[in-house]
Amino acid sequence: MSSDDHAMPVGWMATGTPDRQTVTSDWLAIDPPSIDGVTIKEIRPVATSNGYLTEVFRDEWGLDPSPVGQVFQRTMYPGAVTGWHAHRVTLDRLFCCAGSVRISLYDGRKASPSFGTVWHKILGALRPAIVIIPPGVWHGVTALGPEIALLLNLVDKAYAYDAPDHWRLPPDTEQIPYKLV
Question: Which Gene Ontology molecular-function terms are recorded (predicted)?
């Protein structure tokens, strides 16, 4: 592609900016997460004789070295928002297997090279991916579309009923430069 391909077309009455490349010709995302320690793997469902099989997580993918301590699911009504939350020691692995969600992240770790960065990813049954979120990264989820979304979380440490590792902020907090609502 030459530099002229991104020049403003002659004779147009309005100006704009050209789209930047976001996927390869094989439709693989080329934008790595901009928050240090966050990884994502887009997953390709495999067509079978009676539907599709979608792997959710495999150790050999090398996304992170932590064990899986608990797996739980969360259903979200259309338009539902979780609010912002973070963990001191727990690593989240989020996978939307029904419907569609936008996962929004904010790096609140002062020592991180990506401190203050906001990042978003839309994923769901039609574009499966797993997002690995390290401790200290604030995250919120918004259900998109007209159907219920089903979100799986494969945490490295099981929920401690007597001492929850959850820190919460409202979805419209002034402490994070993005409003979930």
Answer: dTDP-4-dehydrorhamnose 3,5-epimerase activity
